[in-house]
Amino acid sequence: MSVEDKQKPQRNDRVTIRTVATHAGVSVAAVSKVMRNAYGVSEALRAKVTDAIEALGYRPSRAARGLRGRSFTIGVLLIDIRNPFLPDVIAGVNGVLAPSHYQAMIGVSNARVQLETSLIESMIDYKMDGLVLVAPRLPSEILAKFAVQIPIVAVGYHDASATAFDTVNADDQRGAEIAVEALLACGYRGIEMLSLGEREGHAVSVVRQREIGYRRAMQRCGFGASAPIGKIPMASPKREETMRKFLSRQDRPRAVFCWSDLDAITLLSLAMEMGVRVPDDLAVIGYDNSSTAALGLVNLASIDQSGRELGQVATRALISRIEGRTASEHILQIPSLVSRGSLIGSDTK
Amino acid sequence: MSVEDKQKPQRNDRVTIRTVATHAGVSVAAVSKVMRNAYGVSEALRAKVTDAIEALGYRPSRAARGLRGRSFTIGVLLIDIRNPFLPDVIAGVNGVLAPSHYQAMIGVSNARVQLETSLIESMIDYKMDGLVLVAPRLPSEILAKFAVQIPIVAVGYHDASATAFDTVNADDQRGAEIAVEALLACGYRGIEMLSLGEREGHAVSVVRQREIGYRRAMQRCGFGASAPIGKIPMASPKREETMRKFLSRQDRPRAVFCWSDLDAITLLSLAMEMGVRVPDDLAVIGYDNSSTAALGLVNLASIDQSGRELGQVATRALISRIEGRTASEHILQIPSLVSRGSLIGSDTK
DNA sequence: CGTTATATGGAGAACGTTCTACATTTCATC
DNA sequence: GATGAAATGTAGAACGTTCTCCATATAACG
């Protein structure tokens, strides 16, 4: 509007720590001290500086911060964004972070080890302050190597012997036991587990843990150590085909424990389509108690491991590690059963 | 192991551009040039440098890069991580980014304007190269202000008059028309829309656009301009209560068009629970064609706007803008109907 | 009043890149 | 050979912070 409109400051208008210092009539170092509320700042100085910050709308550059010190960002790595269990974890992370000055940035690896690695490296290169890895695929040694460079908490990754990083898990073995016990308590006898058919069978993975729990519960109840475990491939076309085959088997079990709601729900859908009645012909119990399982239409009994809580606990652990803790922590939550129609018919029809 | 174990380089072992330069026997600037494959690099030089990079396992620091030039990161802002439509968008973004040297970092705003603002600011402060905002809540003027500082593409945000940023949308008005037309074609006459009950009624929001399309289609078919639109609150307790009330109305319409699968699916669940048969008593059509809608158990007819494609198109637009385009683009995709059991019974029972 | 502690503020060197200028070499072309 | 033009490589100044020393001012104490 004014005649004095300048051309120059069009892009060069970034308010830096220097602008603030000049405006407040103090040194750059002083402003920095106030920002980090470091030692050696008088009330008068603080007031001057905060006023200037307010007046100019100053925001420190995260990039520059990261170059020298902390970036106040924590990275979250998700294996997969479609699994409805993961948003719960994110919600937990964000809940804990919200009141703090930390912020979360999320990366999605799509279960690709390659991408997972490069994402972790990127987060390190951004000088993020810490990482929450949700169900990472990388082997423990590699994670340990990364953990030297940045504080790490792994969620959904069983390695209680790791010393370089922390782990936060629901007790997946126990969860599987609870599932089996629930099926037995309902009187079902022929019980099978449907697990994930993956080449990698790390004991670190939650899937493997659930298999162990399933086997143990079956054995304890006298059904032999080699209780049957079916493998469902991950990729979509094969996946449904395998399930259909399972459903049409003539020696189909009376009840099935699925390693994840994701599979359980698809199974339920196919069962309906193929005329297999649930739970009359086949009882189903899933894992994660995802929001979809809770839908009236789906009505899937499931093991609840409170993703939200896992996210919260993991974040708190990470922050304590960022703030200096060095001894590793391995936290185990107890999962619980949420009974629904797929386990035992609600109506006495 | 060796006796010469040094204490010093324990943390100081970062391989920087300087390490590479020394190792290759060239200048720092030369290495930088190779990295950015800038003009003025001979084959011999390039070979020396890439060898050194390989040998040392050098990765440029994103933090330092961001401070001076590009960071090769694009920020994605999600309004909500629970809506199963959004993972599709992410998949599209990642698909386009994967072969490039760009990487995506995701922030989740949980529909909070405050958080959305601070996340955008953070991404700017990280010197990210561009932003994909998915269904942002901020008004257009504010977005325009941000767009001066960083290239922005908004997805699910209708503002074809914006000059500072691009928009990528499915044609939500058309989508709603298609839905209404489909219901009419099935012979249903009493049709209502269930929309989102929010204070904010920006025309930019997809919800409002769908309402407009619904009204227009109804009017065109002779059902008056004031076709009824019910409002469903977002928060969970009130939400279901409102739906129950709707379902038990004695003047309940014959068919309903829901603004989102999210609501449609809950409605389907409640309908089953309350004994309202779908589609015999009530036909339902949703929006988004989310993965949940496709489940056999749910079997919800829905308007497909291919989130994946939106993500791809948006990312390509963003990259072209990063690379210099200044004129704004406003892209509109045509949605399509996916007919399923909630629209017309598949079996002739 | 000296002398010593303590509290307060500032100078300036990192941090690891990018990128503008410039210096040098190589190559045509006359 | 001389003369530009083009190609190739380098020095070094940013970028916006943090943080270690230092310098000074003030308080405490005998």
Automatic annotation (TrEMBL), chains A, B:
<keyword id="KW-0238">DNA-binding</keyword>
<dbReference type="Pfam" id="PF00356">
    <property type="entry name" value="LacI"/>
</dbReference>
<dbReference type="InterPro" id="IPR046335">
    <property type="entry name" value="LacI/GalR-like_sensor"/>
</dbReference>
<dbReference type="InterPro" id="IPR028082">
    <property type="entry name" value="Peripla_BP_I"/>
</dbReference>
<dbReference type="InterPro" id="IPR010982">
    <property type="entry name" value="Lambda_DNA-bd_dom_sf"/>
</dbReference>
<keyword id="KW-0804">Transcription</keyword>
<protein>
    <submittedName>
        <fullName>LacI family DNA-binding transcriptional regulator</fullName>
    </submittedName>
</protein>
<dbReference type="InterPro" id="IPR000843">
    <property type="entry name" value="HTH_LacI"/>
</dbReference>
<dbReference type="GO" id="GO:0000976">
    <property type="term" value="F:transcription cis-regulatory region binding"/>
</dbReference>
<keyword id="KW-0805">Transcription regulation</keyword>
<dbReference type="GO" id="GO:0003700">
    <property type="term" value="F:DNA-binding transcription factor activity"/>
</dbReference>
<feature type="domain" description="HTH lacI-type">
    <location>
        <begin position="15"/>
        <end position="69"/>
    </location>
</feature>
<dbReference type="Pfam" id="PF13377">
    <property type="entry name" value="Peripla_BP_3"/>
</dbReference>
